[in-house]
Write a structure and sequence with these properties.
The protein has 5 helices and no strands. It is an all-alpha fold. Bound molecules: flavin-adenine dinucleotide.
Length: 106
């Protein structure tokens, strides 16, 4: 079975970075592909219980792919739900760009 922790870190890196560089005004094509990417996770993510849980969360909180800012916030909130379940620290979603796009201020 996959290393669920390493897989999770790699996947969150991919998802947060992809959201951080998603367009402020995405085309219909870009929105549709982002929705496909998100909806593929409950089907394909190779941690079955993680995938099932994420599928439930998507139903509760439909993805907002309308802008870079909203999508980044949406992923941050979903990641925080997992953090909470695992007893990890909550992440301040005001800092997603600092973490995943701009780097720390100097
Ligand atoms: P991670 O949680 O992997 O975070 C990596 C880095 O992201 C952190 O160091 C921090 O800089 C940043 N970060 C943290 N929180 C946020 C946030 N809210 N927004 C933006 N950036 C943030 N594991 C399980 O054991 N059970 C599960 O049910 C489960 N479900 C998962 C579902 C999905 C869709 C994914 C992608 C992963 C899931 N995982 C699950 C894995 C889990 O979330 C962690 O990735 C794993 O435990 C490693 O944790 P970590 O402490 O190294 O940091």
């Amino acid at each position: 079975p996959p290393d669920v922790e390493a897989l999770g870190r790699a996947t969150w890196s991919f998802l947060h970075a992809t959201a951080a560089y998603y367009p402020a005004r995405p085309t219909t094509h870009q929105r549709a592909n982002m929705l496909n990417l998100i909806h593929a996770l409950p089907v394909l993510y190779p941690c079955t219980h993680c995938a099932a849980d994420f599928g439930d969360k998507i139903k509760e909180h439909p993805p907002d792919v309308s802008s870079r800012e909203r999508l980044s916030k949406w992923f941050c909130e979903r990641h925080n739900e997992v953090n909470e379940r695992l007893g990890k620290e909550m992440f301040d979603c005001a800092k997603v760009d600092e973490r995943w796009k701009d780097g720390p201020p100097d």
